[in-house]
Structures are given as C-alpha cells and as structure tokens.
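hey so i finally got around to running both of the ones u sent me last week. sorry it took forever, my laptop kept dying halfway thru and i had to restart like 3 times lol. anyway pasting them below in the order u listed, first the sequence line then the structure token line for each. didnt double check formatting much so if smth looks off just lmk and ill redo it

first one:
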Amino acid sequence: MQRTAIVVSKSLAPGEVANATAIIMGQLAQRSLDLYGQNELRDKDDVVHAAIAYNVVILRARPAQMTKFIDAVRGASLSYCAFGSAGRSLSNSFNEYAKLVESSNTEDLQVIAAGATGDDEAIRLACQGLSVYAPQAEQS
C-alpha cells in the first residue's frame, strides 16, 4: 500500500498552506507517475475528477520537526521534495528560483513545506510525532 504525506510549517496561514501544498503535490506527481491514475476519471455527466490513487495526509510541523521529516524520507529512499520560503517571493521567476536553490543549503532556504510518497509504513514512520493540519478558525 502507498501513502503521500505533505508537511507544512505551523507558521503558515491557511492560504499559504493551500499554495505550498499544491506546489509540493505537483512536484510529487511529476516524480511519482503512479500517484494518479493514468486515465481520465469521468462521472456520468462527463465531468473529469481527480484520479488520486493513494491516501494523502496534510500534517504540520515546527522547523526542527520539518528537518527530521526530510532526513527520514531521504534515509528511507522515498520520493520527496521540499519548498522554502524564498520560493514564495519569486513568483513566475523560475530561473532565479533555480539559481537560489542550487546555490543554497536547505537550512538557508527555510523550508516551509515538504512532501513524500511511497510505502505506507515508511511514510508513517517518517511522520511520527507530527499532527494533522487543521486551520485555525478565522475570527469575525
């Protein structure tokens, strides 16, 4: 059985979580082609639906927990990726973003989200101690 986990920084606002999660999921889907079904999934009204093949869980972490998660998924040889806070300020500037990432170490990039996909047990092990993401209720 397979599983996908996306871990986001506890400091992110709900909209930032949605953005970072979408970025991580897109990269994981590119790296793991079996994450989604290979054929379009349509209902009786011919509306296309997401063909996600495995469970996806969104978790939250403090910086030290994020580092521990990344180390665990790297050590388990899982398909993974990270996204740093610097990437948020470089909208539609991929070449500049790529140069920044390639010339920096992970700590300097201030990872705000990371994800991994692969063996269910290995993912669960890497996620020990993390809690499920739940957005804070907005105040009126």
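and the second one:
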Amino acid sequence: MQIEVFCLCRMVQHETAGHINILHIFDTLWAAGEPVLVEPFIALAAIRFYKTETGTHHFNFVVREESGKILVSSTEVVSIGSLTFDSTVYWLESRMGRTGLRFGAYSFSIESSDKPLSSIPLYIVKGNRALQRFA
C-alpha cells in the first residue's frame, strides 16, 4: 500500500467513474491575530492498495500541535476485497470543522498499526498573504 496524494483542501467534488476534483490545496493560513478562526477544510489522502493487500485495514488520522500533543484523532476501517486489476485507490477524507488555532505548525498524519504512513504540515502564520512575495 502507498499514499499517492495527501493534502489539505477546501473542497472535494466527487464525479462519475470515481473521478474527483480537489479544490484550493493549501499548507499555510495567514491571519492578523490570534486566535485564528480556521474555516472548515478537508484532509484528503489517496491510498493505493495492491492485490496482495486485500482484507481489512485500520487507519488513524491524527492532528498534532508542535509540542506533539494530539488535538484530533479518528479511525477509519477500510475493507479491500478481491481486485479486478492489479491495484485500486481508496480516497480517505477527514473533514475538519471550524476551529480556533494559534500561530505555529500543526502536523496531519495517517498512521496504521501505530506507524506513520505520511505526514503533512499546516502553518498558521501572522501576516497578510497578499503582501508576501512568491519565492
């Protein structure tokens, strides 16, 4: 199994034939002051399973602050049956509600059997993105 996509985004549109559109991918939010009101968003992952990986899989979705303290933890159970092709993709979505956060870095990770499979950051930064230059 491998994580092919892992991102934070504002919206996921599910189309026919298993296609999806991922809208407004980000890793940084800018704000003038604290607490920062963070609008709802989605942590989205595409997990590819191969024929040898059929069965039941348990995934933990974990959000940690910089100190390592766990802020959010949820579990998803995925059952992969026999496959017609060599592999299949399962889209794992974790919807984050509106919340207040402080400036700093937050870690979003997908874990299985207490082992991290993939991790991405969310940076909450003081300032105005419109005033920042692209590198």
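quick thing i noticed on the 2nd:
Residues 68 and 107 are 9 Å apart (CA to CA).
anyway thats it, ttyl
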